[in-house]
Amino acid sequence: MKTAVVTDSTAYIPLEIREKLNIHMIPLSVIFGNETYQEEVEITADSFYAEVKTKELPTTSQPPVGEFMELFEKLSKEYDEVISIHLSSGISGTFQGAVSAGSLVEDIKVFPFDSEISCMVQGFYVLEAAEMAAAGKNAAEIMERLEEMRKTLKAYFMVDDLSHLQRGGRLSSAQALIGSLLQVKPLLHFENKLIVPFEKIRTRKKAMKRIVELLGEAVKGGEPHRAVIIHANREQEAIEWKAELEEQYPHVEFVISYFGPVIGTHLGEGSMGLGWVKK
């Protein structure tokens, strides 16, 4: 059995890694007025953050089902089955698009997987699936491993400005208002597929310190973990944070990633996150 691995652009896996591991990617889009850009294809994270400084905050859109069908049909010429791993179905219809397309294509068996999360933490599932597929594992074996990963996979993030989440409908107006009045930097996480507040913390520094405490609790047993620092146009801060964390947790392998255009639209510049999973 030959298994293909598909994900969407919000996993923010660099092109060279996608090419090396044979990962196929379907882009989501950001829409500035009448202009639509596919993220990771037509607009980069850097150009997006430069653009939003001078324009209205864009809207975002999921890939059309037809794009999924086209990709799955193309893959059917070379593969027997495909695992399609997507951002949380609680914040986007992308996963449902993969489900619909999978039920409509005939020559390939599609296994959609709801990561129930996003960004490079979603990417951890994708990388694992791609490595297993390359080693000749079938979709059933890979899906079983992804469900096992779900038990130890966590992510927390801090937003600088709640108005983005509120405007995008990802957080209620009341929560946004209370947060901004108190100058709160809420720690957020995914719960039941949705972005919800985890704790309310007064300052950015304390919020990031609390995320590190949560990592410490997760990795205190000494088992090897992989972790990712995710930033919204704060690369230098991410580099410094990585150096500190590597010193503190030598048994954890850290990488740096970013909140790209689609997720950056909802979280806003300055957001920072940390996600991890047991190896």
From TrEMBL:
Pfam families assigned to the protein according to its UniProt record, in alphabetical order: DegV
Keyword set includes Transmembrane helix: no
Keywords per UniProt: Lipid-binding
GO molecular function: lipid binding
Domain of life of the native organism: Bacteria
PROSITE patterns: DEGV (PS51482)
Name of the protein in question: DegV family protein
NCBIfam families registered for this protein in UniProt: DegV
